[in-house]
Amino acid sequence: MILVAVGASQFPFDRLLSAVAELPRVEPLVVQHGPSQVRPSGARCVAFVPLHNLAELVREARVVVTHAGVGSILLALTNGKRPFVVPRLRAYGETVDDHQVESARRFAEAGLVHLVEDPAQLGVAMTANGDGTSHELTQGDELQLVRELRDYLGATIDGVQAAR
What we know:
Radius of gyration: 15 Å
Number of helices: 6
Distance between the termini: 46 Å
Order of helices and strands: EHEEHEHEHEHH
Structural class: alpha/beta
Shape: globular
Oligomer: single chain
CATH superfamily: Glycogen Phosphorylase B
CATH class: Alpha Beta
């Protein structure tokens, strides 16, 4: 199963869902679409999913595709999946700023996510990663995640304090 989750934002993420609609599939597709009106044909589409149900879906999924919200990324990682991550962009009205780009790039640099900055390239990214699977995380990946999160949060907090 392929799971696509756009999070709980009030902004639609039509670019991602339109790209998902174009993917060739031979397996079930579950799409958590939020406020978007895009519904990939043949998918089981739901607006929102309670966290415990979403965690179950992540564990069941062969592939996880998500927006670049830190909570969504951490949900995938803590449930043993390396997700394909597509950042929302302000220019398309998907968010209030481009903070998802920076955090997604940091997770990608750490090797914890497959970063797809242009949703139109999602199929190519999935093909380039072997059979398109999200890949299970190893214990070393989990330790790297802890280090990266500590560094990222420290730098972010330092930046906020310096701006005051």
